User: Fold these one by one.
Assistant:
Number 1:
Amino acid sequence: MNEREGRMRRALSASVTRLSWLATGAACVAAVWQIHAQAPAYDLLVRGGRIVDGAGGPWYVADVGIKGDTIAAVGPHLDAGGAPTVDATGLVVAPGFIDVHSHAEARSGGGLVGVPGAENYVRQGVTSVFANPDGGGDVPLKPFLDRVAAARPAINLGSFIGQGSIRGAVVGMVDRKATADEIRRMQALVREGMEEGAFGLSTGLFYVPGNYAPLDEVVELAKVAGQMGGIHQSHMRNETAGVLDSVRETIAIGERGGLPTQVTHHKIIGKGNWGRSVDTLKLVEEARARGVDATIDQYPYTASSTSIQGALIPQWAQEGGRDAMLERFLDPAARGKIRAEIARLIDTDRGGGDPANVVIAAAEYDPSLAGKNLSQILRERSTPVTLETAADLVMEIVRKGGAQGIYHAIDEGDLVRILQHPLTMVASDGGVPEFGKDAPHPRSYGTFARVLGTYVRERGLLPLEDAVRKMSSYPAARMRLTDRGLVRPGLKADLAIFDPLRVKDMATFDRPHQYAVGMVAVVVNGQLVLDKERITGARPGRVLRGPGTKR
């Protein structure tokens, strides 16, 4: 073989090798494409639902494709490609509802840690809750958030850092102004809470010891939260005769603190004050007109709920803590003043003029009291029912260990006026109860379903699209949750899928432990936690963290 033939053979061999590599490469590419073609484009497809996307615009029919924890596509006739499918024909597909005022932090057997399945919220379509309102909660915040994460809840949870808890930790249970050094220490705790994940500062200026803080002190704490991207949410000092001044103060905290501010669970308590929502709403409107980012949330019930001590024992009598308060109960002069003030509060305030309007929701020292009102308890003892005997009973209840109460003293007219206002979002002020235990306020089981069933469908007081906005994109924007609150590609796949003709709250004050109906499916972070109206057992919820978090 001559040199020329050798070169030809070597070239031919190289060509064959290249062709072999090309064939192998083509086979690999073909295999990759085959695998890709076989893999479904989505992990879950919600088919043919009426999309109420949360923005407030008209509904439309489309499919929602979910990949992982994210909405991948929204459009007609998406190809399921073998992915599991939820048939939403005739149903509403909305963003998962966001509850900006919940007591999911509760520790007495319930709460999201004790009941991580949160079925009462899931069956309302709630996929995210915010805990530690009213100035309360753990300080520091991190241990609480770690407990929630360890519980692996079915729904998401975010949190506030509480001004009342911070004041209690630094100043104590005393009614005096904080010193400059104490304010600096409280500011440091706000900063720490924001860095640990809080979405803002909650104040409970109705409750001790938060009540002992003057406006200037609260503003100094609010400034820290505002500088770190947080908001302020306030249980106001007074929701009765002083409600207008309390709204002004809530607005001032935001205006002077340089952060968004929210009148939470807005209501007007006491017959003599009914109708004042006309003026409170005007105050918020005027604040916004001059540039203050002030908003409102509300639950749709004509009764409130808080502890008997918090509602009916005057704040001055609680100074110094429980032991000091009980000593005042024993002092004839102090007891007389306390008794008179409790009687007044039952008459003109939370009691709505009748001891029968104050109902015991839970009393650990005597569970048999749950569901009974003050008048009923007095009659069972053959004691005359008067404001004064009711006041004595209140002090007895507090002395023996305290109780949670329900107070029927709100007017439906104020409720509707506040609910319909465009600045109002929906929030439950409820918790995660142990099913069947005690007699809690029905708002824990029914708030969101009640708005959809009673105020949208039955009474026609809100358009469906606006009600969904008040439960989803509006609270998401308020909390600066940029990845939730709308049915849009790229956002987290939290969805509430319900029958608009059946959705309804079933819980009542007499029978509170009843789940809402009409919620067909609920998706949290891409996973079904409710499917065909059955709890799946999935627990994909996460701890949500605010804008100031140090990661």
Number 2:
Amino acid sequence: MGNYFDIHRHTMFSLFDGFGKPKELARQAKEKGYRALGISDHGSISGLVQHWQACEEAGIKPIMGCEVYFQPKFNKENPQRKRFHLCLFVKNYTGYKNLCHIMTEANTKQFYYVPIVDFGLLKKYREGLICTTACIQGPISQSIVEGNDKLTRKLLTAFKKLFGRDLYIEIQPYKIDDKGTQQKTDYKLMQYAREYHIKCILTSDSHFGRKEDFDTYCKMHDIGKTTLDVRKTYSERYMPTEHEITERFAETYKKKFRKPKELAELFVDNMNEIYDKVEDHILEQSEIHLPTLETKGNKTSAETLKNMVAKGLKEKGKWNSEYKKRVLYELDVIHYHEFDDYFLMVQEYVNWARNQGIAVGPGRGSACNCLVAYAIGITDVDSIKYKLDFSRFMRKDKKKMPDIDADFETDRRQEVIEHVIETYPGKAVQICSYGEYNIDNLVNDLAKVCGLEFDKTVDEFERKENKKVIADIKSFIREYEIDGELHLQELQDDTRAYEYNDNYDNIIKHFCKMYGKVRYLGKHAAGVAVVGTDISDYTCIVRRGNNMYSSCYDLNDLEHINCIKFD
């Protein structure tokens, strides 16, 4: 493996501007000889957990970060539309939590069209973070473009004061226009770097993984109707090999430097510092923390739960030796894993809902195997009566958060969600959901940019014909959907795929590359995340509309970082 790895990089979580799932990008990085891989989506850290998992699986170090929207000072009374790009990367678990807090406050306190990060937030949460100057839209690069030397020096001084040796200047050897703006800016950045003793690194600001993905990346932009003309300047924004990026730098600056290749290799070697600064297995340090509940009479949670179980079974007329033996065994397992508070939390909101006249389901899933859940009113299923095995729900030899699903009437479910969030202020949030591309919505989106428009600009006969073709394409694709899995390789190899590609601008090829990727971020209808500390130690809180917020991760990602979830 070489020293170079792509650190400034966008994934599908840079919606309609980044292309590729974390797992496939990590695999491609490994093939290119990377020993680490960064992530820096625009104003979002929703991809961090999947990126971390993908890199760990591929055997390379995950570098977790974000390209934040930056203003020197956010003015709530007079917010400004103009903002810049700045990259922040996590060195350790403290840095991870601080990045979550930065993005939470940017979403909840400093949001103006996008979450805004300013020097105040950086000063408050800089510990454990690496800062890089980002792309041509970075504050320092923009001051250079504007020819403002005084402002450039002021910004460099401020950033260096905050981050010291954890500040790096990004040099990006690619073309963004015919005026040489990027090259001129990078040349000035290198001069300032020498003067201020700041190390330079080579970055690609990649938005897709492989060079051959560029045309599909362009189609994605067409679907998103972005104003940026990526076809002119983004063809080199893929993940390069070390040879490619050093050769690109050497070619760009062969007239400026006597030995440009050696300088490029020096900048690549500077990546060693970042690699060494970033700890291994950062997210494995996250632990399960349940809220500590108030109990009557200074009783422990275990004692409170035990008393509640006994009372419940007595009221049901089932306080006998068989039931006592079973619940004592279950309580022992529950206490062994320190999940007493979890059961108290679930019974609280389930019984609160009943007291509010909200219809509650009888219980479902493996929670019905738990007699304790029945005794305290979480379920209506008597597991002894129906001979249900508790070990299918929980065992001592396997520590996993019990997954108790509770059904509430749809029209009043939000009341229960809000009750839980209000019960644990600052420790609970509604959970995010990832809206992924499926067959129908992806074919519909691609049809609009692959010659199958059916809007009012097309005559009625052609609209009908186009709709028929779209329906035929969907039917063709569904032939390769077996047991819920779409077999993309076999789909692409079908001769009909070649015909559709020839007639409709590679629609099947684009479909196969985009299928399953994130299309939008939403809110889970019934999921709530609750922890015993500040919720922003685990996930950042993101804005979903006026006074509406959610976690930045979905149910599955939250589970991987030991965040307790209720559904």
